Amino acid sequence: MSTLLKLLQDGRFHSGEALGAQLGISRSAVWKQLQQLEINLRIRIHKVRGRGYRLADPLVLLDADQLSRQANAEFWPFILLDSVDSTNAEALRYVGRGMDAPFAVLAERQVSGRGRRGRSWASPYAENIYYSLALQVEGGARQLEGLSLVVGLAVMWALRDVGVPQVGLKWPNDLLVSGRKIAGILLELSGDPADICHVVMGIGVNVNMGVSVDEIGQPWTSIRLESGQVCDRNNFVICLSRRLAEYLKRHSNSGFPSLRSEWEANHLWQGRNVLLEAGAQRIEGRILGVDQCGALRLEVEGREHSFSGGELSLRLRDDS
To answer: What is the SS3 assignment for 165?
Structure first.
């Protein structure tokens, strides 16, 4: 079916006869494959008598050859998959099998994509970016302080590079445009946090998603909706990798304190009144910024407190 999709991704009409000739199968076999695309991948296909078939929505498949050429020249190797449960889970499996880091796992689709706090991440086929970068970390988990915020900066600049200038950050791991989520980050550790370990940085970006997706339970947007045009996902992967390499190097050389002011300058909720939820505990305060480790600084009843942890939930207060 991937070969059929490659033939259709130009957005033009193709007759069943022409598709069958290119694939070496019958017209009825082409029809069956088209039905499977609609059922299994939820890809909409226009069928017009006398003209043939074309995709209802633009599609840009990831190109393994193009990405590999760029990776060999500038970055880490890419592992490109058609479908996977989760790119983070797959990257951790590769780490467990002894694959040398750094490397990145990309997929056209996730069937069990994950966000923070156990939430699912909607992953329609070939519309968005599902990207997990694995790195080896020596010297203990302290080397990771503020890392998720630094990754957020890299994603933010990559989005601005491709035509979303108004995107900003929300502590700790979200990127928003006008209050709508466009990207999220999930970091996971493997190994000894006191010595040598691996960190997998999962990045999900809404790229060409343009219609309602039932699984998303919050306001969202995409590069396509914000820029008004279809984004070449291969170019975005290269742009994102370039920004990640830049910011990870800065973090490795100087730590999060050197990037703290840049992060705060792009934090959309800086100075806003918020509600922080930690389990059953609810804390109201005003955001002051982040500390040297990336923890959230809140003014609560006139006093400053710092909060960090993967199970925290932050939202604006109604009066903010």
So the answer is: coil
b/e string for 49-79 if b means 16 or more Cβ within 10 A? eeebbbbebebbbbbeeebeebbeeebbebb
Catalytically annotated residue among 109, 114, 170, 181: 181
Whole-angstrom distance, CA of residue 286 vs CA of residue 270: 8
Q: How far apart are CA 249 and CA 25, in angstroms?
A: 50
List phi, psi (to 5°) of 315: -145, 155
1.20.120.1200, 3.30.930.10, 3.40.50.150, 3.30.365.10: which CATH number matches 64-264?
3.30.930.10
Class of domain 269-316: mainly beta
Residue among 116, 170, 224, 233 flagged as catalytic: 116
Instruction: Let me know if 160 is a catalytic residue.
Output: no
Determine contact, residues 176/226, Cβ cutoff 8 Å.
no
Per the annotation, the verdict on 12 as an active-site residue is: no
Q: What is the pLDDT of residues 28-82, one digit of tens each?
A: 899 999 988 888 888 888 888 889 898 888 788 999 999 998 887 788 999 999 9
181 catalytic residue (yes or no): yes
